[in-house]
Every structure is written in C-alpha cells, then in structure tokens.
Amino acid sequence: MSRNQNIGLSHNMKADNSSFVRVDQFKYLGTTLTDQNSIQEEIKRRLKSGNACYHSVQNLVSSNLLYKNLMIEVYRNIILPVVLYGCETWSLTLREERRLRIFENMVLRRIYGPRRDKVTGEWRTQRNEELNDLYSSTNILRVIKSRRMRWAGHTARMGDSRGVFKVLVRKPGGKRSLGRRRLR
User: Fold this and answer.
1) Assigned domain for 83 exists
2) Has residue 104 been placed in a domain?
3) C-alpha span between 126 and 33 (Å, rounded)
4) Burial of 42 (0-12, 13-18, 19+ CB in 10 A)
5) Model confidence pLDDT, tens digit, residues 103-147
6) Cα gap 140→121, rounded to integer Å
7) Is residue 63 part of a domain?
8) Residue 45 domain boundaries
9) What is the C-alpha separation between 54 and 73, in angstroms, rounded?
C-alpha cells in the first residue's frame, strides 16, 4: 500500500518461479482485504450475508408458533455470528455504526412485529426506543466493542516474539512524508 495509488499498478511480483498480479482486493480467511485498507466493503458484504442468513431462517423467525425468546436466540446464535465474523479488527465510522444498527433494528422489527397503538387502535411499526426496551440483550455495537477489548487483551498477553504483539506495542520508525495526512 502506498500514498500514490498509481505506483505498482502494472508491476507483477515474482517469487520462486511464480508470478503474482497486483489486485485491488482479495479474500483472506473469509475477510475481504482492500488496497485502501477500507472496511466499508467488508461490512457491506457481512450485512448482505447476514440478510441472506435471516432470509434462510425467515420461516422460523416469522412463525407465530415460536416464542419471541426463541426467535431472539435464533438471531443471536445464527444471524449475529455471520454478521460479526472478524469484527475484532474493524475500525468503525459513524456511518458504518449506523448501518449495523439499522440491520439490527430491521431484524428485531421483524421478530417483534408491529404494535397496536393504544389510542387509535391502529397497527404501527415499533420505534427504536421500544425495540431497545423489548430487546434486553446488548446491542450490536456493544458486542463489537466488547469483542475488540477481549481481542486487545488477548494480544497484550502474547509473548514478545509474536507478530501481532509486535504490531500492537512497537512504534513505526522513520519520517512522515510531506503533505496532508490521510483521513483514516
């Protein structure tokens, strides 16, 4: 990765009689990595796969035969792990946090269904505050933050010889290049 994105576009790398082509993004261990080190595409892909996972169990979640607590357990144990795979390394912006909250509220609205208004007697969709009151567990952003803290503690307890610990503890050397720094 470099500041000038045109550097290395046409260059191939050779190692042990194998040629490697420069790509903008690739998938490694189920996570999409980009040359800009952007997490937006990964979060979009995770939300899309979480939505597909929801639609695969939609008959369970929208059934009137199951208790709401059981539907919440289906959400927590089937859908949420698909969305949050690899979230320990995400650096979220407000826009991405908002997308994750929208996804969670969408699923919770489908689980809890509409609510009858006491005054007018009409059915209406539930507001976010009402969903938060009904859903007693921690929201998706708190889960991500707690997983990040758990991962940081895990890497802090690693030995000095481990690469992840070195990245966490060491400071980069050298001088910064001229010009305005990148926003992220």
Assistant:
1) yes
2) yes
3) 37
4) buried
5) 999 999 988 888 888 888 898 888 888 888 888 888 999 999 999
6) 32
7) yes
8) 38-142
9) 13
- Within 10 Å of residue 53's Cβ, how many Cβ atoms? 17
**Residue 64, domain member (yes or no):** yes
| List of residues 6+ apart from 122 with CB closer than 8 A | 116
How many alpha carbons lie under 13 Å from residue 150 in its C-beta half-sphere?
A: 9
pTM: 0.76
What is the tally of structural domains in the chain? 1
Indicate the SS3 state at residue 34: strand
Residues in the chain: 184
The residues facing 12 across adjacent strands are: 21
Query: Residue 179 to residues 27, 121, 123, 127, 176: CA-CA distances in angstroms?
Result: 32, 62, 57, 46, 9
State the Cα–Cα distance between residues 169 and 75, nearest whole angstrom. Answer: 37
CA dihedral 146→150→155→157, nearest 10 degrees, is 140
- Bridge partners (DSSP) listed for residue 20: 13
69-86 average pLDDT score? 92
Q: How far apart are CA 174 and CA 3, in angstroms?
A: 16
Token pair of 169 as six digits: 């503890």
Which residues pair with residue 83 across a beta bridge?
A: none
Q: Is 45 exposed, middle or buried (0-12, 13-18, 19+ CB in 10 A)?
A: middle
d(CA 126, CA 105): 10
| DSSP H or E segment with residue 97 | helix 94-112
